[in-house]
Every structure is written in C-alpha cells, then in structure tokens.
Fold these 4 entries.
Entry 1:
Amino acid sequence: MSHHPTPPGDSPFRSEPGRRDEAPQFVLPLVVRIERAAPPARTDALETAARAVLVLLGDDRALGDGEWAQAVRDWQDARIRKVVRRARGAEWRRAEALPGITVSGASAEVRVFPPVPLDGWPKELAKLQVSGTDLDDPEPPAPAGPDTPVLWMSPGLDMSAGKAMAQAGHAAQLAWWELSDEERADWRDAGFPLAVRTAGRDLWGRLRDSGLPLVRDAGFTEIAPGSCTVVADHPALRHRSGFASR
C-alpha cells in the first residue's frame, strides 16, 4: 500500500529553525562540469542538478542500511544545505574518482556526492571554486509538456547559475518528500523527467499560494533569508492540490 511519507528529519522549510541549527550541519556537494570551450546551457544545468539530487535520494546506497544512508539521514536532520562547485579538466577527473553519481543532461554533467560535514569536504572538492557558474541559454527553453514536473523559478530574484542549481535541487527534494512510495517509484523508473522554467509574475503569485512545495531560502548566500525561490509543480501534487498552472 502506498502512503504519503513524512519528510525524513527536518525539512529546511517547515520545522523550527532552532532545532535544525542545533543539529550537526552537513552539506550535499554537487559539482558541475564547466569546460572553457563548451560550457553547458544554464537551464540544462539546473535541470541536471535537480535530477542529480533525486537520483541520489532514490539510490539504494542512500536508503535503509545502504552505505550512504546514515550520511543522508544526518544531512536531512539539519538544514538541507546544497553547495554547487565547478570543475574542468583534471579537476573534474579527480571529482569523478570520488564516490558519487554523475548525471548527464543534454549539455550538462553534474556529479552528486553523499553528504559531508559542513567543515569536512574531501580535499579534491574543497579546492573547487563556487563562483564562476554564470551560464546562459543559447535559446529560450521550450514550454514544458503538460505532464512534465516543472520546478518554477521566481521571476523576481537574480541568482547565479550555481545558486539556482541548488535551489532547483531543494524543490526537487521537497516534491520527492511529498510523493507516495508508488509515485516516487514511477518518477524514478521514468528517469526523473522534469523541467526548470521561470514563472511569469502572475503565475508566480498563484504558485506561491497553491499549496505546492515552496522553497524558502535560508539566506546563507546571494539572496535575503526567507526569499521564495522555487515551487515544485509535480503532476501528482498538482492534482491533489487542485492547482492548474497551465
């Protein structure tokens, strides 16, 4: 029988900040490959990062007694931090040698690693730069299909690609928590299809009040604490909320 799971540990957007802050802090490292000659498109990088988070959450190593499961539980018991760093050439090859999962999009490659203590990054990742992830879309992304989960970005915030990748990952994670076991399995078996798009201002206003999963940023970098950054519009959640976004 399927059921609607309670988020494992504390969601960064639902529980009391003091309790989350008292727990040991962990971070989910994501590394995006940005070669000088062929940087990925921005939207593809955001979508690939979101899928990478989902791939890790659905991996057997992150579940039950898997080798990454305790690290994932520890991470989800505190603030759900994600940090995106960039790599190219030998840096990327060293990152690929560490335990993790590489997820590829149309032009983007993102490697996600099991959570690590906030001050305990592997040296191969600690030396990578966070800045420099300002990516562009060569063409405007096409409209998403009606049955495609969409992570709607706020139209009123200016974020670097790295920051936006982390926010898209948060939204994907919130959607994952809200789905039943059967819905999660269906999404995973389909390869986690999703789109990242920026909402128009009218749509964004309706999305924020829709009851769909909403990311409120903790404000560690770039934007003010409490900023609403992304809404996760998954068809299964949309049908339950009665929201019609398109």
Entry 2:
Amino acid sequence: MDSSVTLGRLELGRAAVSPGALLNGPGARERSAHQQQQHTGTRSGPLGCVPLSHQVAGHKYGVDKVGILQHPDGTVLKQLQPPPRGPRELQFYSMVYAKDCCDPCLLELQQHLPKYYSTWSSPDSPTELYLKLEDVTRHFQKPCIMDVKIGQRSYDPFASQEKREQQIRKYPLMEEIGFLLLGMRVYNVGLDSFDTYDQHYGRGLTQDTVKDGLCKFFYNGDRLRRDVVTASIAKVQSILRWFEKQRQLNFYASSLLFVYEGLPSAQDDKSGTQSLQKNEGVLEYNNNIEQSLSNMYSLHKKACMQSHHPSPQDNSAWHGLLMQSDACEQDTTGQLPEVEVRMIDFAHVFPSEVHDHGYIYGLKNLLKVLQEILDD
C-alpha cells in the first residue's frame, strides 16, 4: 500500500503537550540516591519490565505519563502517546514493517530504524499499548549514546501557532543549525563512569560552540575517538542518500540515535555483551535476559538509587583539551568500530510528494560539523 495513502488516513488533530522532566544544569555526573528517586521515581513497569536505565532524552517512564521500558526479552517498549501522535507513530511502524511491504523505498528505510516487533500490552493493563522495538544498545557493554533531533523545525505542518512559537523559543537556532542535541551519555574510561548531558546542555549550544558540544560525545576522558567519528559519518551519509532519493515522507521532530562501545577494545569482555555492569557501586541492568524476574526487580530497585546529576561544565577549554588528546584511529585489524546510527521518534511523519528539505538540511549540517571534528 502506498505510504502517502496509508499515513494520510490518520487523524491530524491537535495533540496535548506532555511536560517533560526538567533537569537543572547543562551537563553532569551520576546522580545521588535521593535525587534519583525525585527524577525517575521507583515505579516498576508491568510483568518484570523496568524503566530503560540508559535513556538520554524523551519521555521517561515513572516521570511522564508515557515512557520507555526494558522488557525481559531484551527489547524496549515505547508507550504509545495520546492521539494523534501515538496512532501516527504506530501507523508508521506498521507500514514500514508490513509483512507484505514491497516498496523498495520502505524496505531500504528499515535498515535505518530499530526493528519493530508489533505492539505489546500487559494482561493487567490491556489498554496501555506499547511499541515493541529493538534495543540497539544491547550488544554494547558500556554504551555511549547520543540523541540528536534533525530538521530545521521541530513542529509539524498541522501544529497550532502557539505550538510553533513554543518550539521556536526552545531553540531559536534550529532553523539555522538544522539539528539539536537532546542528550548524551559518554563513558569516561579513566573514571569508569558515565558523563551525561541533558536537553538544556544542547539548547545552550550556539553556532560557535555546537562543534565543541558534539565533540564531548566522542571524547572518552583520554582521547578523541576519531574512529567512531569516521564510522558515524559513514552511517549518516547512508541515511542522507536515502532522503535524497525518497519523496514519500516528511519527518518532523524526529531524531538520530548514535551508539558506540565506550570500552577500549583491549578491555572488552570476550565472554559476551549481555552482562551486568558495575559503575561506582551502581548495578546497571543491561538486557541480561537470563536474569530471573526477582533478580530484575532487585536490580531495578538498586538502580533507582542513582542517576545522572547535571552540573555546570566549561566549554571554553574544551577545544584545547581535545587538541591535546591522542588520535584514536582504526583498530589493529584496520576495521572501523561498531557504531549504530538509527532514526527514532516518528509521531510527526507525514505523506509528501517532495523531498524532505528540512531533514536533508539538518543531515548535511550535522555531517559538516562531524567532518570538522575529524579534521581538527
């Protein structure tokens, strides 16, 4: 079925805006126990599911009305948003991953998305519907994660004037820069801990500081991961090629999710990546599907004792620090490291007959900045 016809059947009503959890400060270390409870709560999900421990942006389960959970089988569950956003995203995934899909454009798009495994609901709450999706971080031991919203505007063509003005106020440079850093989580090899940066950090970046801001995602406390930058560029270029060919869909308020392994290759645990990790006394459940449900609840309880605490960080000396770092090129085998770059968040996807110029502009600008990072 033609994607324009399919998506065109969706109701295009006005959606209510769910307030997100506001974090103070531009960037951060791990959060203390009482602060963790304040921001993520201790609410458990249905049937052994737990809030996604390494989520860097978006609605968080137990904080917002909708959020993302981790299922015991290693997938993630994204709770459906209220209409029209939730049904629109469900329709998008159903269309792209339809069993009888024979559209070459959509079949190629699948490689740039998390795998979709249909919907899911708990027998106890059958009306609470979730999208069952691949967890693209599950094969990484210390996943470094970055969420970047792409496009020149983060509101769709059917947004009210009030919604448009609200989104523009959040980040006036979106039209000029073409992307917005929503959050990131970076493994520091020297400290054996994660540094996290929230949405306020990204919105504080300007035309002059956005490169140094993105640099932090590729800096592991010891050196700039140029190999990861190179692999990321290749992935984004592949997505750009798809957008330059297709004229079926336009994407608004959609993001790219970047993931790479934070552990240096020499320290990789060869026994497998489905492991229980310990960072500064914090047990982090990372898709170990062999754990019993009782252990999972225990782990979640302990995980609720710590989170990410934003604290001011100075960008002024950042460029100089990177210039002093070692250049980490390809590994000894000459192969680029495993890097995932996937498109996510499709509550504002609409049929079209023209190129998605806003998204293409954002991708090209992002590639330009990544190349500048690599060339420095």
Entry 3:
Amino acid sequence: MNKPEIMLLGTFHMSMDPAKVNDQQEEIHQVVQSLKKYRPTKIAVEKSFLIEEELDRKYREYQQGQLIPAYDEVEQFAFRLAHEMELPGVHPVDEIVDMSNPSLNQVFEWAKEHQPKLFKEILNVQMRLKEKEQDHSIRDILHYVNDPEYIKEMQRIYMKLTRVGDRQHQIGVQWIKQWHHRDLAIAANISRITNQQDRVLVMIGGDHLHLLRQFLEDSGDYHLPYVQPYLTK
C-alpha cells in the first residue's frame, strides 16, 4: 500500500529581514513556482491552532486581493502557494509549549558563567551557521537551511546544550525536554491532518527539521521526500 507523503521545507523567519523580502519578490515568486511542482494537497505551517480562524480570514482576504502579505513566511510563501494550488486554506501545526522553565537565555547564562569553554563551543557553531546565511538570495538561504550538513550542524548545538549544567542542575537537559515536547507535538499534529492520498508540504523553521524527520520516519507511516529538487533554479 502506498504511503502518504510529507515533505519538510525548512524556512527562516522573514520578519528578521524585511528589506530582503521587499527586494526579492521575484525570487519568492520563483520559489513558489518551483514548489508547485510537488503538487501538495495540503500545506502545514508553523502557527498555532489558536489562531486558525485568523489564518483562515487572512487567507480569504489574500484570495480576494485584499491582503498585502506581511513579512512572514506563511503569508509570503504558504498563502501564495495554497492560492495557486486552489487549496481551501493552510493548516497550523505548531504547539504552544512553555519554554521558560528554564528559558534558553538562562541556559546560555549558566554556560557563560560556569562552563565558558562549552559556551564558546556553542557560540562558534552558531556564528558559523549564521554567517553563511548573510548576503544570499532567499532561494539560496532555503537551499542552505535544508542542506543535510546544515541540519546536522544545527543538531550539534542542541546536543551541546544538553551538557550545560551539572548532576544537580540539569538545566540544558530540562530546556531540551521542552524543545522535544514541542517537536513531538508538531509531528503528531502533522500526522493528524495527513490522509492516505495526501502530499503534505510542511513549512517549518529550519531548526525543527532534524527531530521532525526523525519522529515522522520512526512512525513508518509516511514517505518523506527531500525538498532540494524543488528548490533548484
């Protein structure tokens, strides 16, 4: 029996670089045209079900030509693609998880004060990854964020975070538990919207790709094609 397909597209948060979004509207259009070749039956996005009604309203406004897309990957990519594929809407699959106990900032502050060598290791990996995202086109950034080597390096950061703390204060592990909780819930939410004949495109922050692919593959229920062939120029 054929399995339904789920294709993960790692994205970056466009609100961080509105000038690039303004300058590269043609690039965004070309990416959308490339993704159309996947022929998605559903598009899942990194938004909570709590704003589903607002998403539906905005999407209807977009369909009617009454919405100027915000600096947001959902409105810039997902709305455009859903409209061109004549889909009724997009599916929010993110999960609201309390990530404040401990917060990521507290983890970094602990490492900075008590484990400076580890803190420097983490910062070095982060800086190396971020440097490669600078001064590139939107399509190039998407290629980079979805590259298996980038995903592997990103996961290295999370595994280094587990070492922050000591036996009495597992602060890094406690934060990672929250992160895993969120990605497990996202994987479950994706599964809930996926039916037998579906080809689901999931637009999600690139730092979620490793765990989501692992969780969905471990289920054995889905075929997970890689997105790179649909990002080529």
Entry 4:
Amino acid sequence: MVMRNEPRRLLLLVVNLLLTIQLRVNSVIGLCEHSFVDRNKLYSFSLASPLPRFPHGVLSEDGFYKVVMNESVLWFQLCDGMLFNHDPPRCVECLDCGGPSRCGMECSALVAKNALGYQVCTTIGHVSSTNISVIDAQNPYKGVIVRMSSSGKGQNCSLSVSIICDSTGVQGPNSMEKLGTCDYATVLQHPSGCATIISFHEKGFGWFGTLMTIILCLFGAYLLAGTVYRFFFLGVRGIEVIPNLEFWASLQHRTQSFFSSLVRKFRGPSAGHRSSYSRVNF
C-alpha cells in the first residue's frame, strides 16, 4: 500500500515545485506586462524583460530611483518593492513601509518632506496596486504609464511614472510634479518603454483556426494526462503507456477503409465486379 502511493506523492511534489518556481519567476514580469491590439497590430510592453544593456529591464539596478526637488525627496521602484544597499530613507514616520529601521523596504514608492529638520515620509505606492496603461492611445509608440497607489491614514496617494520610449539610453527621472493633495508624477526615458510590435492580418483561419487550436490543445492534454496516469498509477511501461494505443495504431487503416467505401459508393460497382457475372441470353 505504501509503495503504491509513492508515485502519487512524487508527482504531487514535482508539480508543486514547478508551480512555485513559475510563480516566483513570473511575479515581477507579470506586473510589468501590458499588451493590446490596434489596427491589426499587437503592441506588447514587457518592462522587466532583459535588454542587452539593461539586464533588469526598466527596474533600477540600485534597487530604487531617487528624485530630489525643493524640500521633498521621492524614492520609487518600478513593478517591484524597493531595496536599499545604500542611501536608505531616514524618516520619522514610516509605519506602513517597513518602519523606521527598514523604511522603504515594504512599499514601491515613498515621498518625504522636511518638517523642522526631520523627514516625514508618506507611502504613495505598493507593488500590489500597480497597473500599466499607454501614454497616448493614438500614438502607442510613445510609451506607457506605470501607476502605483496607496491608501492609509484617511488619504489616497499615488505615483504615476511616464516611461517614454527612447532606444538610445536612459534619461531621468530628474523632476517630480505634485498633481493633487497626495498624487505625484515623474518622467523616465528608457528603451523598455518601446513596444514590441507584431503585425497580422484578419484574413487568416478565423474561427476555424481558433477551433482547430482548441481541439489540438485538448487532444494534447488528454494524451499527457492519460500517459501520466498509466505510467505512475497503473505501472505501464514502454510504448503501451500511450492511452488507447490500439485505436491510434489502427486509425490509418480505418481511414483508408472509410475513404475506399466512399469511392465505391459514388462510382458504383467496379469493372472487375461486373465481369464476375455471365451474360444470359433469352
């Protein structure tokens, strides 16, 4: 009884391990992806995908971006939480972003204002509240806006970072703008803001191609599930592990027989068949 359950436990362990790895790898990339279709073109933005000169995509390799303007300081990271190996925020209040000892480590955007010689911080963005949209729907080449927000202490705050497409390199962020009571904006020029464009035509297979794709995917899932079940639970080995092997092996012969019967039906009796009868004279 114990030996019979070992394959099942092994299979569950492998599946859980693969799902855990996939979730960790795609957690940042999923937040930084945005795509839409316009005029037979697919515009796809993947801000965290590595580029030749930027292995972390649009994410700052320092763990954060920093903008200083007048009496205010802005820290933020795009599509991920901030990390500080140097120059961390030193705030009087930072309870919803890591506390005074780990200030900035539990949010994605933080702004500080000088009050009587002390920096009072306000969290204005969290990773979980990040969303992406295009800057100009009429001109998708321009770039995207990454908006992150935070709610707390009776006020709603946000930070909007415009990532303008610039294939030559990175510029900024050099300034920030206060749009409301607790809403800020800044601009960053980066190659990751350039969309990957795929052109296609509507004269393809249409609904038929979609239907065939669905059927093939279902067929592949059926074969995979049946093979796993027969291998781990029934102990089948070799080519017999394929479910309904006898049916698939005879499929070619069945198809030939079906078309042969159709040909005979529409052509009528063959010449050889007619010659087997002798002619009778009355």
